[in-house]
Amino acid sequence: MSDDQKNDGDDPIQDESIITSEQIGKKRGWSFYVPILILIFLVYMMFTSAPPHPLLEQAAPDFSLERLGDNTSSVTLSEHLGSEVVVLDFWATWCYQCREGLPILDGIAQEYADKDVVFYAVNVREPKDLVQDYVKSLNLKLDVLMDTYVEASTDYAASNLPQTVIIDKEGIIQDIHIGVSSSYRNEITQKLDELLN
User: With a cut of 50, which residues of the chain have pLDDT below it?
Assistant: First the structure.
């Protein structure tokens, strides 16, 4: 058989042994790449997850804040030490997640009304009239404190709102939530049950 005759037909062995990267992609399809992409994403999340809040497990800074609707009295953290768990929720009327979270916290406060825990919704630097109207529109029964000069929110590093802080009876910050997730209510009540039992 001449060389010409040998080369006339396609050599199946030669064709199968030369596979381009394009052919590999077509053969493997998305089912090959999806697990790899998921693995890359999981590794990325492991190394980029947010570090714990710097105030977690630290002594809570004391504060003295005016109660909304009562210019004559202020509330301090120190008055609750040794007797009550304190929940502070830093918020503002412009904050979308605050509108979602405040009613949840209001419901928890009513549920725990007969327990040794107090709840304060701490408004950050907004006019009293605006805050009063907002609270009324949501039919909130929470005690609202006015952080007019941004002192408490600065001390508690509440740069992202809402920020919910749970302080134990000894004045140590036990939990900090930034934002409102689908598990927000359960996480708050679980921590409260843990601290109150």
Answer: none
